[in-house]
């Protein structure tokens, strides 16, 4: 019988221990093989955080509507190339220019609790439109982040949207706590990060 490496044995023993523990919730894939074990306290914390995030997202939507803006979920995303990818010329040879990225339909996600596919979770969260005058509209993307922070890849996607004139502006909706009350603060991506990301 083939010997099991020490680190693999430790990993297997850890999986067995978690699978039999009351502290962990273990899931199995369709073939009956071990999938994951998650600490129940972390699962509960995650559910609470997601619920708070959903409530804040709804609050942002209502706030934008109160400002006279039409709001809808944005079901697209940006497919950015991997680092080092370069575009190709007419002959199929690399041109040396970096790949540009492209707008794609957001991938659908499977909800294991309701057993249905959910609408794709796009980036940013919302598209918001307001009529200015005579066929002129303000079109902004709104990403809801309770802490107001974007990841590096999210910043690159925002820069791509602005560079390709998909949105006139992108706002980051941040939660501001006043005791038990939560207000919405909007951070303009261009004002906060523009100098660093306007060359992308």
Written account of the structure:
With 200 residues, the chain is α+β, with helices and mostly antiparallel strands. It has a domain at 56-74 and 123-197: Trna Endonuclease, Chain: A, domain 1 (3-Layer(aba) Sandwich), CATH 3.40.1350. The protein is built from four helices and 13 strands. The chain has helices at residues 6-19, 40-66, 152-163, 189-197; strands at residues 24-28, 34-39, 70-73, 76-79, 86-88, 94-98, 102-105, 109-111, 116-118, 126-133, 136-144, 169-178, 181-188. The strands form five sheets. Strands 3-10-11-12-13 form a five-stranded mixed sheet. A hairpin with a 2-residue loop joins strand 10 and strand 11 (136-144). The protein is globular and about 70 Å long. The N and C termini lie far apart (55 Å). 14% of the residues are buried. The mean pLDDT is 78.
